[in-house]
Amino acid sequence: MKIEHLECFIEAVHCQSISSAAKKLFMSQSSLSSAIQSLEQELGCVLLRRSAKGIILTDDGVKAMERFQKICDEYHQLKKISSTDENTLKIVNVCGYPCMCQNLGSLLAPKLKEEWYGDIMVSIVDVPEKNILTRLKEGVANIAVGLCKIDELETWCSESKKNGFILEELRRDGPYCLVHPDSKLANKKFIHFLDLQDEFLASASYCLELHNMDRFVDVTRHIVAFNNPDAAIQAVADNHYVTIVPGLSISNDARIQRGDVKALPFLGTNEKFVVFLIYQEDTILSKSEKLLRDDIREIISKMQLVSQ
């Protein structure tokens, strides 16, 4: 049993999606699926099943997850104890709001594969936007990409400064509605709130917090909450649902590029968002961390909103 296979399984469970986990681990979906299948063959049981809502753990999978997590934690602790090499790579965590992490990871991938950042190992972790500052204060992340409503920006700036972090506004963003290309909505130039009448809305948990979802309850036929935006977008492609997400977070989504899903500006709410970067002072960041931060800034500044 390989430790890499255990970590593949754990990441898939955390992401609730094979495709999302594969992107975060910079590997193909087929390779990740093979790693999980190898574990199932070794253990002689089924650990997880796929569904429209994402990954569902079996009873054996729940038990295995707990044991696998302990094994991996102990393994990494032992590696720290046994490592005496002064040149050991420092792990730098970049956290960001869901969807944006996948987008950012794919755009950073070429430099990560070339070991562009030298003495650091970069890990990109998705975190609900309300928890981003907490992760920085806990030391879990070194750099973060956040998202908030425009009228919340002043509070974010104040809290960041109070805790010794620098907040830098990068872009303004707005909501997009994703629909299936065969949907009656696909021919519209934009989607209005009332257009969602009788539609099935797939909503990620953090999107529920960004929008006033009480308005949607009286209009849509049904609202299904997913653990992450990736699963909600997949429900649009597979089951003709609709979903609403920030525009920049889907600017590089393969499903939109393939035509599996169509993105249209959503005019049903007044929310506008701010995408921002939070990081420690320059005197604390290493040279490689500053290079990573600058690359993230440049990538987001060049992101293009979806055009259909």
Tell me the distance between the termini.
46 Å
Give Rg in angstroms: 20 Å
CATH topology of the largest domain, by name, is: D-Maltodextrin-Binding Protein, domain 2
Structural class: alpha/beta
Tally the structural domains. Answer: 3
Broad CATH class of the largest domain: Alpha Beta
User: What is the overall pLDDT average?
Assistant: 81
| Overall number of strands | 12
- The CATH architecture designation of the largest domain is 3-Layer(aba) Sandwich
How many H/I helical runs? 12
Proportion of beta-strand residues: 15-25%
Query: How would a textbook summarize the main sheet?
Result: 5 strands, mixed
Summarize, please.
This protein has 308 residues and is of the alpha/beta class. Helix 1 packs across helix 2, helix 1 crosses helix 3 and helix 2 packs across helix 3.
Describe this entry's structure for a reader.
This protein has 3 domains: 3-82, Winged helix-like DNA-binding domain superfamily/Winged helix DNA-binding domain (Arc Repressor Mutant, subunit A); 90-172 and 273-302, Periplasmic binding protein-like II (D-Maltodextrin-Binding Protein, domain 2, 3-Layer(aba) Sandwich); 175-265, D-Maltodextrin-Binding Protein, domain 2 (3-Layer(aba) Sandwich). Helices cover 43% and strands 22% of the residues. It has helices spanning 3-15, 18-24, 29-43, 59-82, 100-113, 132-137, 153-162, 205-210, 214-217, 229-239, 254-258, 287-302; strands at residues 48-51, 54-57, 90-96, 120-126, 143-149, 165-173, 175-179, 200-204, 222-226, 243-246, 262-265, 273-280. Strands 4-3-5-12-6 form a 5-stranded mixed beta sheet, with helices on both faces. Helix 1 (3-15) packs across helix 2 (18-24), helix 1 (3-15) crosses helix 3 (29-43) and helix 2 crosses helix 3 (29-43). The model has no long low-confidence stretch (mean pLDDT 81).
